[in-house]
């Protein structure tokens, strides 16, 4: 006996043995006149609405053991895939944005690779302008010059002129006579000293450059350089024997106190002849930049 879910009425399903028994009875009565069967009144279905057993679908008679199709699971799967797709798109967009920003920052932060590097030691000058062992210098403006002799014919930059006069006064106290021979020289003056004197002495360009710079390449243009002689031994002036004079010995011992130094010592790197009479002022930032930055020395 089986009970249909949700139905309170129980039904008896005929067994197979009952059907076989009925069949045997028919065989035993073969050839006998058939007795009309008694009419069995049709049983009405219960008021509960239940159907006879044979009218119940097999699936329902055997029990609702099969689980219904999981429609919610399909919806959940589709929703999950959609969410994953959206997340993947968002992640891809984020990565693309980060890469774009990174490239922008790199392009912004990366200089054009032409950033000027400090000039290596030994470089000639900020412009690299050298000629026959001499460096190019700008001509000092007249407004920056001051006299170092009473008649005003020899001048230097103001700071250099003040230091030079102090040095001369100190040397005089020691009995030494420092005489200025040449101070500031214009480019026009240097043109005469280089080209005209070279022609008079029949010198070639390199030979003349050893003792006199081409115009535009002399330290005298700066207003910081001065040629010094010995007032007590004028025969030694402007030649290498000046280093035997009292004036030179005093300068070697005391010139640094007044920020003067020898421009062309023996075996100098510029290849200029030894000039013990040629001194330059390096007592302020402008003079230091003029010589040390241009020469790349020390």
What would you note in describing this structure?
- With 298 residues, the chain is α+β, with helices and mostly antiparallel strands.
- It has 8 helices and 8 strands.
- The chain has a 4-stranded antiparallel beta sheet.
- A hairpin with a 2-residue loop joins strand 1 (130-131) and strand 2 (134-135).
- The model is unreliable at 1-70 and 102-127 (pLDDT under 50).
Brief summary:
By secondary structure, the protein is α+β, with helices and mostly antiparallel strands. It contains eight helices and eight strands, in the order αααββββαβααβαββα.
> In sequence order, what are the helices and strands, one letter per element?
HHHEEEEHEHHEHEEH
Average predicted confidence as pLDDT: 74
Shape: elongated
Low-pLDDT stretches are: 1-70, 102-127
SS element count, helices: 8
How many β strands by DSSP? 8
Q: Given the helix and strand composition, which structural class is it?
A: alpha+beta
Largest sheet: 4 strands, antiparallel
* Distance N to C terminus: 119 Å
Proportion of strand residues: 5-15%
Q: Radius of gyration, rounded?
A: 60 Å
Helical residue percent? 25-40%
Strand order of the largest sheet: 5-6-8-7
């Amino acid at each position: 006996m089986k009970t249909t879910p949700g139905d309170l009425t129980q039904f008896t399903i005929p067994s197979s043995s009952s059907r076989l028994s009925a069949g045997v009875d028919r065989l035993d009565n073969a050839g006998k006149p058939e007795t009309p069967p008694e009419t069995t009144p049709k049983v009405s279905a219960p008021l509960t609405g239940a159907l006879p057993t044979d009218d119940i679908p097999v699936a329902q008679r055997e029990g609702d053991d099969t689980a219904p199709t999981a429609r919610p699971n399909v919806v959940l799967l589709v929703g999950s895939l959609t969410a994953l797709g959206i997340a993947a798109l968002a992640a891809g967009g984020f990565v693309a944005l980060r890469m774009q920003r990174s490239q922008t920052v790199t392009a912004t932060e990366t200089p054009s690779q032409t950033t000027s590097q400090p000039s290596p030691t030994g470089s000639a000058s900020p412009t690299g302008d050298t000629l026959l062992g001499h460096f190019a210098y700008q001509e000092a403006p007249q407004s920056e010059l001051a006299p170092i002799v009473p008649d005003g014919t020899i001048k230097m930059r103001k700071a250099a002129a003040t230091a030079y006069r102090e040095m001369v006064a100190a040397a005089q106290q020691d009995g030494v006579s420092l005489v200025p021979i040449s101070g500031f020289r214009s480019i026009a003056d240097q043109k005469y000293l280089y080209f005209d004197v070279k022609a008079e002495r029949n010198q070639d360009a390199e030979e003349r450059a050893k003792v006199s710079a081409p115009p535009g390449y002399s330290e005298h243009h700066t207003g910081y350089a001065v040629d010094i002689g010995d007032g007590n031994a004028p025969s030694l002036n402007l030649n290498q024997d000046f280093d035997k004079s009292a004036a030179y010995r005093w300068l070697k011992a005391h010139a640094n106190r007044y920020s003067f130094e020898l421009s062309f010592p023996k075996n100098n790197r510029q290849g200029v002849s030894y000039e013990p009479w040629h001194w330059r002022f390096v007592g302020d930032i402008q003079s230091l930049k003029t010589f040390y930055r241009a020469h790349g020395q020390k």
